[in-house]
Amino acid sequence: MFRTHTCGELRISDVNKQVTLAGWVQRSRKMGGMTFIDLRDRYGITQLVFNEEVDAALCESANRLGREFVIQITGTVNERFSKNTNIPTGDIEIIVSELNVLNAALTPPFTIEDNTDGGDDIRMKYRYLDLRRPSVRKNLELRHKMTIEVRRYLDSQGFIEVETPVLVGSTPEGARDFVVPSRMNPGQFYALPQSPQTLKQLLMVSGFDRYFQIAKCFRDEDLRADRQPEFTQIDCEMSFVEQDDIINLFEGMTKYLFKEIRGVELEGQFQRMAWADAMKYYGSDKPDLRFGMKFVELMDVLQGHGFSVFDNAAYIGGICAEGAAHYTRKQLDALTEFVKRPQIGAKGMVYARIEEDGTVKSSVDKFYTQEVLQKMKEAFGAKPGDLILILSGDDAMKTRKQLCELRLEMGNQLGLRDKNTFACLWVVDFPMFEWSEQENRLMAMHHPFTHPKDEDIDLLDTDPAAVRADAYDMVINGVEVGGGSIRIHDPKLQAKMFEILGFTPEKAEEQFGFLMNAFKYGAPPHGGLAYGLDRWVSLFAGLDSIRDCIAFPKNNSGRDVMLDAPAALDPSQLDELNLIVDIKE
Amino acid sequence: MFRTHTCGELRISDVNKQVTLAGWVQRSRKMGGMTFIDLRDRYGITQLVFNEEVDAALCESANRLGREFVIQITGTVNERFSKNTNIPTGDIEIIVSELNVLNAALTPPFTIEDNTDGGDDIRMKYRYLDLRRPSVRKNLELRHKMTIEVRRYLDSQGFIEVETPVLVGSTPEGARDFVVPSRMNPGQFYALPQSPQTLKQLLMVSGFDRYFQIAKCFRDEDLRADRQPEFTQIDCEMSFVEQDDIINLFEGMTKYLFKEIRGVELEGQFQRMAWADAMKYYGSDKPDLRFGMKFVELMDVLQGHGFSVFDNAAYIGGICAEGAAHYTRKQLDALTEFVKRPQIGAKGMVYARIEEDGTVKSSVDKFYTQEVLQKMKEAFGAKPGDLILILSGDDAMKTRKQLCELRLEMGNQLGLRDKNTFACLWVVDFPMFEWSEQENRLMAMHHPFTHPKDEDIDLLDTDPAAVRADAYDMVINGVEVGGGSIRIHDPKLQAKMFEILGFTPEKAEEQFGFLMNAFKYGAPPHGGLAYGLDRWVSLFAGLDSIRDCIAFPKNNSGRDVMLDAPAALDPSQLDELNLIVDIKE
């Protein structure tokens, strides 16, 4: 060992001990004949002291140390004269008697501090230096702790972690697969799994009963913000269960994690909200319930009074921002601009303030009598000092989504989205199908193995679009952290599902035959869910992006700029793989 | 929930309870008016009873159930008349009152029992049925438990699990990489990691101090028996440590695992054996120390007596098999045939029995006096009743390897390799380099970042082939379960190493510049090791192959016969990837 203690370990009770420490030079400063060095390792920072009068040569060596040099020192623990209450080792310092430079260091391209001067690009290129910053390291420590606790909980509930293969076959539906050419099987390719979905269902057929895996998944999608081509899933599946069993068990896990990791006790059952209600009242299948501003629909109240925008709308709805009547015209104009941005796409915004005397003053006063406006006020339950914001449009769903953006923006502006407050809910009763304009057919909203709700099975023949599924998402603070479904285990029901999805029996056999065949040998009723680990960790860490809870993330072009990957292959390698690269201009 | 209890749970104390169980029909038998069904799930087997006299219709339904049907039953727990002491639920049975068929099953293509009639190929094709067999499932349960305990131990020692990426850059040395074409970066490829070696070294540069990961690794090698293209490694790295620190810590982990998983207390320190001694005394860098038969070299004793085979040999050595003098001529001839097989390649074998009276009777008596043979006996410390087996050859190392095979075979024949006895050791002081006939240069035996032993650094200039490394393997029962090394952190030493390995500075920069560059920013002294999880689990499970501790293994052609992967791609997919398949005839 190069050390007797770490840099985060020594306390006042260690005074007079002879110790050896090793670490990185965080900073050094000369004060008169004294040189002070902050020595850093993963565990903390300890102050080293060199005294010119006592040992000039040693002090001179210390003065030559640059930032991020790796050193080993031996010395005596001393009580500090002026203590530093900001760090746990702040009561002591080390009077150094021996200094050993283990490795020199070039000056790092950015400062290794929580508030660094390094931009995103340079931090990613030198990610190994970026990871020295305590804030980044803490995210990865949190990630470690989270996976330890997830495993502890699931193990205690009888789940077995089973590793499923990474080199698998291509799956027909969903996003694009990454593929891997096989040298031993010329012209053939493996695929990297988008998720262990089919394999975990096979494990249920195998009788594994309770499976989980913290699994790497891969999607070759055009990367949007905050997507990674490889990501990590907490993947779970259970047999002989119904939806409530899964929801209860994973609600338990969530509470356990909140308690162990964040020290937060979540009381009572999580709210459960039907998908239709989530859309109706929040315009989103992942509503942020840290704050109110539930949508109020105003068709009855505001249509038919001569304001053509509303009179011709398919939907009129609004939110009430409590105590926001003080918003200035300028602020309101900015909100209007916000909803009119192309990403949101509203045509305009109507607002109304509730005055001190209870009267309503709106931007459309010329069309509405105070009587109508009072009815509107009542619909919101608004009080003096509140601000009502209204959107309308000719497509109810689209307008709701616009209103959702406005609601979230108001939540931000009013400070209602505190990162240390957590609102958890289950969104349930998702529609089984959604209509695809592109494919001109119904598509499975979740996947084709999702079980319809028993009470809706009759609708499969008469009104498939109205069928709801035994599918559920867990939403925390407006982030979908996980989701899953009960799966179909009845071959006849599965066949009907394929029919509705427009598969001929032959095509269903070709694409899903492998799983369907397994199901013929005794499939138990089963269901499961998967959590996005990256997303959940960043939520717990209070991060805006998943990138900083991933050790070596890729950028928006799917590149690892540190490793400089991907890269061109050696021609001999391509040759061995029986491949020719043919780039179209 | 489809059940109140599992099939492994009910005991005599539950008698008269009303219960609901769900599971698979293991077997059914009719005895008079009674039908007995063994209901199986992951947790065990419970006997169900249907009585024709009590409910003829229900009994009739039960009679129609086939093997592997999935059923749910409700009934009353009853004390069995004739108890089955072989299973924990053997004291009770369930008098069934309700039967619900959850899913029918085709007759499985092989019997779902520990002793199955299914061959390897059919078991792999229907792996989801094979996994129902308790013996296979237990291996995966053991694997789960092992990873849980490994994580528990390493977490308790301050290690952080960090996920490193699966889509990385190609590494220059070692086995072939699997590659992944990037659609977003036309003509460029990711590689799948052969191990997280460079990334874990970067984490040390980042100050992570103690890292581990249970990581998937990939090698596109021609598969020998018991190799898989993807395998799992317990990968570890530590900073500010010397070889002994790593050995001590992981010896601690090994003892912990033996205790927690096998209930075996390993006493004292593991033996540490220099590589040179392992080769000299056991002809192997992974000696099986469950038994003796240490090699004895006999050049001094047996050369120069007119037996030309020995007189012209570069090496003569033998083993003494205690109490095996009873071996018949036929058995000895079979051993001679064994060592002469092309896989082993010895020219012949000499044997000698120690008679009751202490005289030695050998197959080469006409060349040797009893006096010489007695000297030989003393060299072995042989006793009456022992059998001495001797090989010779013109290449000492090759002959030792042949003698190693003979020793292991004798260990098998004499029952000295009990799967429930464990002999752990560290093989240390590996040579730094080995000569490659193919490349006509010294190659790194471990990898180019391995640290030479301090006391041998001077030899780098004068006799590099004699330099030993700070490299170590953990060997259990003749299986290398893990290995690692201290890494070089001094850029000057690393440059010298590349020089010896025949790299120009330019080539070294091109291939390893990325890691070397990181090292310029303050690399701590560090080292680590990696365990092969698959191999370790199969050792604990007493398996001869790693395949049965892997849920979905690949065959010797790298195929997953269940998934039918790899497979040809859709032309449009190739097109998107800018690839043309070009198979040479």
From TrEMBL, chains A, B:
Its EC number is 6.1.1.12. Keywords: Aminoacyl-tRNA synthetase, ATP-binding, Cytoplasm, Ligase, Nucleotide-binding, Protein biosynthesis. One of its GO terms (cellular component) is cytoplasm. Gene3D superfamilies: Bira Bifunctional Protein, Domain 2, GAD-like domain, Nucleic acid-binding proteins. It is found in: Cytoplasm. InterPro entries: Aa-tRNA-synt_II, aa-tRNA-synth_II, aa-tRNA-synth_II/BPL/LPL, Asp-tRNA-ligase_1, Asp-tRNA-ligase_1_N, Asp/Asn-tRNA-synth_IIb, AspRS_core, GAD-like_sf. It catalyses: tRNA(Asp) + L-aspartate + ATP = L-aspartyl-tRNA(Asp) + AMP + diphosphate. One of its GO terms (molecular function) is aspartate-tRNA ligase activity. SUPFAM superfamilies: Class II aaRS and biotin synthetases (SSF55681), GAD domain-like (SSF55261), Nucleic acid-binding proteins (SSF50249). Catalyzes the attachment of L-aspartate to tRNA(Asp) in a two-step reaction: L-aspartate is first activated by ATP to form Asp-AMP and then transferred to the acceptor end of tRNA(Asp). NCBIfam families: aspS_bact, PRK00476.1. HAMAP family: Asp_tRNA_synth_type1. This is Aspartate--tRNA ligase.
